[in-house]
Design goal:
The complex is a heterodimer of chains A (about 550) and B (about 100).
Chain A: E1 8-10, E2 12-14, E3 18-25, H1 42-66, H2 69-82, H3 85-96, H4 101-118, H5 124-142, E4 156-160, H6 165-168, E5 176-181, H7 189-197, E6 201-203, E7 216-220, E8 225-228, H8 232-246, E9 262-267, H9 273-278, E10 283-288, H10 291-294, H11 302-313, E11 320-324, H12 352-357, H13 359-374, E12 379-384, H14 390-402, E13 408-412, H15 415-419, H16 421-426, E14 431-433, H17 435-442, H18 461-477, E15 481-483, H19 491-499, E16 504-507, H20 512-520, H21 524-535, H22 540-549
Parallel strand pairs in A: 3-4, 4-5, 5-6, 9-10, 9-16, 10-11, 11-12, 12-13, 13-14, 14-15, 15-16
Antiparallel strand pairs in A: 1-8, 2-6, 3-7, 7-8
Helix pairs in contact in A: 1-2, 1-3, 1-4, 1-5, 2-5, 3-4, 4-5, 11-13, 19-20, 19-21, 21-22
Chain B: E1 2-7, H1 16-29, E2 34-37, E3 42-44, H2 48-53, E4 61-66, H3 71-82
Antiparallel strand pairs in B: 1-4, 2-3, 2-4
Helix pairs in contact in B: 1-3
The chains are: A alpha/beta (about 550), B alpha+beta (about 100).
């Protein structure tokens, strides 16, 4: 039970929304099963283990059938793990020597876990898959609830230690009013999910692990607090804020004094264009094109690429669609491009480096983009990922020009590209800052390591100073500078970015309304003042505090 | 005892999807097939956990073994699958082509 004296918990708020609801916890991981010898017959234990594994396999197959394409392969492979004949032999051996079913299952998986973990980063995802199957099988042996996402049958506030993609693959998001996690940072999976779905969330929330099922909580993302058993007055404030949001300004992005800031959508699949239009996006600031490639063993041919790009371009006649060419490597390995295992993929041959190594893939993609653009009325821009040097920008601009694509720019994700902002922008038509990778490279903090989330905070003044270099260079050269990382979806930070010279903000479509409203409340001069306050600090927390307190 | 030596063509090695496809195909042959790296221990090819634990990377050579009736045919099929040759396995692995 939470301490009754504690009325509220604090953490990092994601978005500006607020919601009230009963807590439903994601059941925590099970402790290691006891090594005490079994008091039952070996035959009984074996029946328990066999039934448990068959049940787990059937459940995973059922989830695979409901899941999206990417999750399906993983769940299917997990079902195969539960049915593994060699695993069954090891379990039988453990039970024969006196172990309980739960212990024998646990130990049998552990043997393989060590072997997989020994392969390092290469098999890290499979280790996580194995842990999940092991946990399910042990829970089934013990007859306790399977750790994982709850399904209370009514709307709820999801409370978890942390959320992994596997946890959320089959989550019914219509039922989730808000999310609270003890771990995670502003760029964690939870934060990205919450922004993409427009769900208020508080992450890195100390004390979240002590919230009980059924407790009513108010999750206020704008203030980064979770109020336990909120008063009527506090609930009324949430309702009032919702009414205000519903009546929010519509139309193109503007500051209070009318300075235009293009509000664009990030999309990762052609089908998402419709939702972006509905949310009032003025175009697409980041069209990720990996979708057509991730499932393929070979690069998709030009005709199929033309068809999928056209779908997006047709939704935005007369408006900007910024297509990022294939960004392979690091967390997005592609079968036909990434041939060699690298000791440090985030610093390896990824993004444009990878395309320069296989120019035929880029040639086909640019040809497809140009062909699709010629068939529609969208203003099509192309953008290269992971550019470190101006020379790379020049090379990409030249390749784009060969296909008649004259609006070619670069992502600024590597600190060198920001430090050389004048030269980078001189070499191309525009820059778009990817704040997630720029934070990762500036602060030497892996995006996928939750414990480093404080360093991945897009409010970090080191990151903001790099963004200012690019914004200033944009003003000097008259070239557009956008932000398409998660930072753009944080309404208050969006104002800071505009103050740093950013001329367009691109984000997940559900985040557009809050950002549009925040801009309408601040003049350009106010944005510039907030930017000065944030940049002058020496930590992300101090930057956020300085702006909030002003 | 019949054996085949084959270099694994899949870019991700015998991990993830290629491993699952291989294990399914091995189970589908109905006979006991083992797989191992050229210089390492052989494991049951029907065990996804054992196959993943081999940590076979792109280009690594593996040895497939089986005996008895149907062994040669089964090994040929599995070897072709690992070598990335087109085999009829009921799976579409090629996405966009």
């Amino acid at each position: 039970m939470a301490d009754p004296a504690v009325h509220q918990l604090t953490g990092v708020g994601i978005g500006r929304g607020a919601a009230v609801g009963p807590v439903a916890r994601m059941a925590p991981p099970l402790p290691e099963p006891t090594a005490e010898p079994s008091r039952r017959q070996a035959g009984e234990e074996l029946a328990v283990a066999t039934t448990a594994l068959a049940g787990v396999a059937a459940d995973l197959r059922a989830r695979a059938a409901r899941a999206g394409r990417e999750a399906r392969d993983v769940l299917e492979a997990q079902a195969m793990m539960a049915e593994d004949p060699a695993l069954a032999d090891a379990i039988q051996g453990g039970i024969a020597s006196g172990r309980t079913a739960a212990r024998a299952v646990y130990e049998a998986f552990s043997g393989y876990r060590e072997a997989l973990a020994a392969a390092g980063e290469y098999l890290a995802a499979r280790v996580a898959d194995l842990d999940d199957v092991r946990q399910r099988a042990v829970a089934a042996c013990l007859g306790v609830p399977v750790p994982g996402v709850p399904d209370p049958g009514h709307p709820y506030v999801l409370v978890a230690h942390d959320l992994a993609p596997a946890d959320t693959a089959t989550l019914d998001l219509d039922r989730v009013r808000a999310i609270v996690t003890a771990e995670g940072g502003p760029t964690s999976h939870t934060a990205v999910l919450a922004r993409t779905m427009g769900i208020p969330a508080v992450v890195a929330c100390a004390g979240a692990d002590r919230l009980d099922d059924g407790t009513t909580v108010l999750v206020d993302a704008a203030r980064g607090v979770v109020v336990i058993e909120p008063t009527e007055v506090e609930r009324a404030q949430v309702a009032a804020a919702k009414a205000t949001a519903a009546a929010a300004v519509v139309g193109p992005g503007r500051t209070a004094d009318g300075h235009a800031v293009a509000l664009l959508a990030n999309i990762g699949r052609p089908e998402e264009a419709t939702a972006a239009v509905a949310a009032g996006a003025e175009g697409v600031g980041l069209f990720r094109t990996e979708f057509g490639f991730l499932d393929a063993h070979n690069a998709p041919d030009e005709a199929s690429q033309v068809a999928s790009y056209r779908k997006v371009f047709e939704s935005f006649p007369g408006q900007r669609v910024v297509v990022r060419v294939l960004d392979a490597g690091a967390d997005k390995p592609l079968a036909f491009l990434n041939q060699a295992a690298e000791p440090n993929p985030a610093l390896g041959v990824r993004g444009l480096r990878s395309l320069r190594a296989t120019p035929a893939v880029l040639h086909t993609q640019l040809a497809a983009i140009a062909a699709a653009a010629a068939q529609t009325a969208a203003q099509v821009w192309v953008m290269a990922p992971m550019v470190a040097e101006p020379e790379e920008a020049e090379w990409f601009v030249a390749r784009a020009a060969e296909h008649g694509l004259d609006r070619a720019g670069v992502m600024v994700e590597v600190p060198s590209a920001a430090l050389l902002a004048n030269e980078t922008l001189a070499a191309c038509a525009f820059a778009s800052i990817g704040t997630n990778d720029l934070a990762q490279y500036t602060l030497a903090a892996d995006r996928q390591v939750g414990g480093l989330s404080a360093l991945q905070d897009p409010w970090h003044p080191a990151l903001l100073r790099l963004i200012r270099l690019v914004g200033t260079a944009g003003a000097r050269t008259g070239k557009p500078v956008g932000v398409c990382g998660e930072a753009a979806a944080d309404p208050l930070l969006a104002c800071v970015l505009v103050g740093l010279g950013v001329s367009s903000l691109s984000m997940a479509a559900p985040a557009l309304a809050d950002v549009r409203a925040a801009l309408a409340e601040h003049s350009l001069a106010e944005c510039q003042r907030l930017a000065e306050l944030a940049v002058a600090t020496s930590s992300a927390a101090a930057a956020r505090q300085a702006v909030l307190a002003s | 005892m019949s054996q085949r030596r084959v270099a694994v063509a899949a870019a991700e090695g015998l991990h993830a999807r290629p491993a699952a496809l291989f294990v399914k195909a091995a189970a589908g042959t109905g006979i006991a097939v083992t797989v191992g790296k050229a210089d390492g221990p052989a494991v049951d090819a029907r065990s996804i956990l054992a196959v993943l634990s081999l940590d076979v990377r792109h280009g690594d050579e593996v040895v497939l073994s089986a005996e008895g009736p149907g062994a040669d045919e089964a090994l040929d099929r599995l070897a072709a699958l690992l070598a990335g040759e087109t085999v009829h396995s009921g799976q579409s692995g090629d996405g966009g082509g």
